[in-house]
């Protein structure tokens, strides 16, 4: 349902949804990875100001919030219209530094020099100065933001990257999950930006404990059954890890052997992605002391070069 009030905030030519009430989600074309083509821009600008502000120590106050302005350059005009219609007391939150989440930042700083950017410092240091040179606040999780008198709680949720953050709208218990979850399929972890399987599991447990009513991913649809989705993610990752362990126990010693064994059904063009996943799982198995005695992590690490020669580029760490 779209209320007359909220529809004023978004250009009528763009498709968008408002759920829960007050939280507007605009899928905007971005340079994201398949099967997606868009990044959800989340806009929160409550009309009725409530006063929750007394008991909390807020790191930032604003009348409006924008999360992950990651649209492509040809949609910057649309983004500009959205930002121009919002209050000047604007807070911008980015879940992590990937281009499909920050490509629109430069438009915001041009349009509203008073805006404040909030992100983890591992995210902040990867954002180019051309994209953001205005005021910013580095956060590490646990802080609160006050938007129009309503509280949003910042949650450190590493795994996808080492600076990845989520945001909980406290009143509706809606969790903006960045790229930790996606609307369909499973999320990729970025091994080159501190992506880590143990962190990913921990952040997933944290989300399950929070028991949000809805999950708002940045790619694809809102999820109204968070527990089901999060437990499904855990189940899939555990089962993948088990297949990798089985391949190792059956004698696979190199990255190529493991990928060829576990991902034999998957198109070879996707093997570089699969290789990152295997490396993350091997790290995780090693941390848990689950690798068999005969398996050498050094030999495995040395086999990355041979994999790259056979299959193509692999992600640096
Ligand atoms: Zn990402
Ligand atoms: Zn993304």
UniProtKB/TrEMBL annotation:
Signal peptide positions are: none
Q: Which organism is it from?
A: Salix koriyanagi
Protein origin, superkingdom: Eukaryota
Q: Which SMART domains match?
A: Lactamase_B (SM00849)
One Pfam annotation reads Lactamase_B
Listed GO cellular component terms? plastid
Outline the extent of the Metallo-beta-lactamase domain: 53-219
- Residue spans making up a coiled coil are none
- Protein name listed in UniProt: ENDORIBONUCLEASE LACTB2
InterPro entries in the cross-refs:
LACTB2_WH (IPR041516), Metallo-B-lactamas (IPR001279), RibonucZ/Hydroxyglut_hydro (IPR036866), Sec-metab_biosynth-thioest (IPR050662), WH-like_DNA-bd_sf (IPR036388)
